[in-house]
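W.,

You were right to be curious about this one. When I first looked at the sequence I had no strong expectations either way, so I just let the prediction run and decided to look at it fresh. Below is the sequence, 415 residues in total, followed by the output.
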Amino acid sequence: MTVQQHAAPDIIVIGAGLAGLACARDLCRSGERVALLEASDGVGGRMRTDHRDGFLLDRGFQVFNTSYPQVKRRLGLRSLRLRPFTPGFFAHTSTGTVGFVDPTRRPTAAAQLLSNRTLSPRDLVALAALTAWDTLLPARALRRGTDRSTSAELNRAGLSGTVVTEVLRPFLSGVFLEDRLETSARFFHLVWRSMIRGTLGLPAEGIGAVPAQLADGLPDGVLRLETPVARLTAAGVLLADGTELPATAVVVATDAVTAARLLPGLRIPPGRTVTTYYHAADATPMPEPTLVVDGTGFVLNTCVLSEVSPTYAPRGTSLISSSVLGEDGPDVAGKVLRRLSELYGTDTSGWQQLTSYTVAGALPAMPPPLPLSRSTRFAPGRYVCGDHRATGSVQGALASGTRAAREVLEDVARA
């Protein structure tokens, strides 16, 4: 084992996902010498975009929400050149396609909602009350409410089994990456609030532009790509190449499974796995940037990404993203393509599958009662952060990284 000769950083942050980037930036701003170690060849963790033959392929379907407090604090939204989704979605139900669009943003959608057979007058009143509650109530009040499953909360709100089963469950399954609505109602309310108050969109250069912007704010020499860590040592960390890098504090900002390997004894939640398929088509199957959800639950959601942002596909070609729960398997891709034909009402036999991404641990499981934030302190001089320590969202990852930096600095000041 060799010992690195250059001056040791004060703090090592392992993992250049959103949590690690936020943590490293805050520590650097406070004057600490920081080394941000990333095992892969780029920043972002699960939030990356591949460029292939003129297509932008996010590693799994993702959306960017402008209403998150950490997003407003840390990112220059104008430079991301965000392109919005329709403020709503289409649900393919047993009685036909239901348009579920926010009437406060699209007043013409109000008549469509009122005439919909799936949504009864009672459902409309219950949904309006729930939405008003989440919009107007302070976020701190939502965080303090009694926690239960989202399924129980929707029932408590007075929504019928039909609208939950055929509309809300299919939509929320794509948000939570689980189809039983076991996820914390506390988290549901915060997500619903953020969707109402913000805009959902995609950066013109792909979702990877978000962590790239955060990385651009780091001082030169802080970020070290392709630098995997084998294990933590008493002095700091041991790199995979056998080099020991000492530091007074180490922050593990990796995915949950890697964090548990580096910090034996760390308890982590189960992860949710999702697979996203990308298809190219000569013509768009839907000439608008609207999410489509499948009432059967087989396809979580599908969207023509090139309608959201034309930069996602070469001119004259459409890019369709479609996701399912779990891993890829025999003929899953074929079944997805056949189901897409039904969802879009078009012949998909000529569509070309560009690639697929299976993302294990795409989100942490978040059953009630859910603590929305946890201390990042693990042991003296050892910290852990990430969405698995907060909530499975961009806000959760950034907030956890922020908390890690704050707790490190508090401990350094006391030392």
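Here's what jumped out at me. Residues 66 and 273 are 25 Å apart (CA to CA). And, maybe more interesting for your project: The chain has a mean pLDDT of 94.

Coffee later to discuss?

I.
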